[in-house]
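Human: Here is a favour to ask of a fellow structure person. Comparing notes only helps if you start from a blank page. Give me a protein, with the fold worked out from its sequence. Please set it down just below, with no commentary around it:

Assistant:
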Amino acid sequence: MSIEKNIQTVKDFFAAIGRGDKEALLALVADDIEWIIPGRDWPLAGTYRGHAGLANLLETASGSMETSTRPREFVAQGDRVLVVGFANGKVKATNKPFEDDWIFAITVRNGKIISIREYVDTQALARASQMGTTGHTKRRSSATIGFAEGG
């Protein structure tokens, strides 16, 4: 498949997520998809395999979090599409908000998504999931990080 078609498959996937269209999602992924979400101490961390795993992830996500996800950039080479985006929302059990800049590394073969590996702010998501803490999730901008110039 062409890079452009791979990007379109991924865009269609995110559009289906935004619509909550489970049927469209399943049509876009391989039967043996693997979706890896890093971290501990937050509801979605784990590895999900196959259509059953994807259905479990979607059910867990809708039951435990309110999230708005916005892909901002799609970068592709071969069968890999990197998606740079932002999400915000809250964890339902704690009612704590989170903000998360993320990257998804997605592999597309023969028009189907075969793997997704998320790179997310696991600390912000774990903080928002913790009971009895303040849940402070202030984001740091890379623009505020300075480097000393030496000579």
Remarks:
- Strands lie at 29-37, 46-49, 65-77, 80-91, 96-109, 112-119.
- The helical segments are 3-19, 22-28, 50-64, 122-129.
- The two ends are 50 Å apart (CA to CA).
- Residues 60 and 80 are 27 Å apart (CA to CA).
